UniProtKB/TrEMBL annotation:
Record-linked Pfam families: DALR_1
Keyword list, A-Z: ATP-binding, Ligase, Nucleotide-binding
GO molecular function: arginine-tRNA ligase activity; ATP binding
Gene Ontology BP annotations: arginyl-tRNA aminoacylation
Name of this protein: arginine--tRNA ligase
EC number: 6.1.1.19
Segments forming domain DALR anticodon binding: 12-95
Residue ranges the record marks as coiled coil: none
Catalyses which reaction(s): tRNA(Arg) + L-arginine + ATP = L-arginyl-tRNA(Arg) + AMP + diphosphate
InterPro entries, sorted: Arg-tRNA-ligase, DALR_anticod-bd, tRNAsynth_Ia_anticodon-bd
Domain of life: Bacteria
Length: 97
């Protein structure tokens, strides 16, 4: 049986599917870079986790310890899950979506 909880591939796949679904329902094709306002602690936590992506990839490239990338992606997925729970992005005000 596949588990959707914990540090598993199905958990990461579910997080990816959830994010793609949000983009699709919001009518967002390719994400664009634009100024954002971070006001909620869950937004702040997600932003801090996303900022680490480049460093994690560079570290994995140097060390060839691919499990570190998997661990980072699990942490990122869990952080996104907390963000999604506390910040209803599709039901929020138009200006903050």
């Amino acid at each position: 049986m596949l588990s959707l909880d914990g540090n598993t591939a199905p958990y990461l796949q579910y997080a990816h599917a959830r994010i793609r679904s949000i983009f699709r329902r919001a009518g967002i094709g390719q994400p664009t870079v634009a100024p954002i306002s971070i006001t909620h602690p869950a937004e702040h936590a997600l932003a801090l986790e996303l900022v680490n992506f480049g460093a994690v990839v560079a570290d994995v490239e140097q060390s060839l310890e691919f499990h570190r990338l998997a661990g980072y992606l699990h942490t990122l997925a869990a952080t996104f899950s907390g963000f999604y729970e506390h910040c209803p992005v599709l039901r929020g005000q138009r200006s903050t979506r």
